[in-house]
Amino acid sequence: MLPPVNRYRPAANPRGEDTRRRILDTALALFAANGFDGASTRDIAEHAGVNLPAIQYYFGSKEGLYRAVIALIGEHLAQTVAPVIERARRCLESDAPPRAQVINHLCELVDTIVAMFLDDTLPDRENRYIFVSRVEIEDTEALDPLHDVWREHIQFPAAKLVGRLMGRPPDDEKVLLRTLMILGQVKIFCSRAVMRGLGWQAIDEARVRTVQAMVNEHTRAICRALKGSA
Amino acid sequence: MLPPVNRYRPAANPRGEDTRRRILDTALALFAANGFDGASTRDIAEHAGVNLPAIQYYFGSKEGLYRAVIALIGEHLAQTVAPVIERARRCLESDAPPRAQVINHLCELVDTIVAMFLDDTLPDRENRYIFVSRVEIEDTEALDPLHDVWREHIQFPAAKLVGRLMGRPPDDEKVLLRTLMILGQVKIFCSRAVMRGLGWQAIDEARVRTVQAMVNEHTRAICRALKGSA
DNA sequence: GTCTATAGTCGGATAGAC
DNA sequence: GTCTATCCGACTATAGAC
Asked: What's the pLDDT tens digit per position in B16-25?
């Protein structure tokens, strides 16, 4: 078993910190492109311009490096949605918030995820979010932290909003299902295949807005239907 | 480069056919569980109760075996939706089909996909559909046939229905986007992670119906909203 | 058609000099 | 901290007996 990522951190001096960073960035790209097995430490070292043993030195092992990459992505994801879920939380705390406001918060959350997945100006955007898809497939325990972030910082806050609209607790099965389906519409945008299917090479601001508008429309349509059926 | 899968087929006699089948079934399970790199030919041979060189003998190479597995899944997928898309096609051919009928066909298609992904009585259900998720991630050319089946037999027929509802051609960007989002709600059910998130170990008929009812509700809600906005 | 034995390759990790 | 050289295990694929 490995030590937790952050404990394995030789080199506090500037020189080592730079090497460490270069390895991490390269690993993100290569793990994203080829998966854990597909990316060899030799490749990573070569592309990063460091020597092979540097990986062992800085991250203990290949798996340690992988875990470090995952932790990085998880942090970024949590940070991005933090202000949105904080606003949603405060809204739900006030008693009897108007229905329209709850729906607005759900739309805002969904919008933020779309922006996060599609904003091409963010460095490493595509590489980063490929891992969100990978969680579904590779059942390594190393990916659990990312799964946890998704559940706690996105799925659960969304379920609280949907639950309120349905008049049920957030862990109710039907609430959970509906939440997953709404998020499913959005999750497709962290996949390469979908972009290829659309013929989108690059994504400009106009396209992000188009997607956001459409996701909003769907989400509102679903929420409207919720009123009757519960 | 390898010969196409179906050309590599020694043994028409009963004994060989059985061996071939056992390898194929085992490979499906192990590739599904561990991916292409993660499943070794040694493992497959051992679990199938055959010798290592049998894989080369029947499928030419490990990749040949992988392609054979993919072809099998693609055929099953196409067969499952065939009657539904045939009915939808005939509906669209008649001039001016009622709006409600077009929506019904879209719902039927979506229902069928849900049933296909969730029906636990089908042998190898879970193993089979894991690959549908894998297409998004692994960008091996070997997975292309499965991607093609999805696009031609599911995505495109769905887009034709959505396009009719929006009064636009099926290859219009907005039509395509909307179709992808509607299918996104459903596609989440071919992932292990989602089932784990719901705490569903087994899936009985009641659960399939619950999901179908909800997907239907969402799809109809979205289609209803389509009328105004186009 | 089925099998044993083995060739040939590659990848992760380490030893130890500087 | 960085590097060269090397070990060792695992893998795919093949040769050739039966």
From this structure: 789 999 999 9
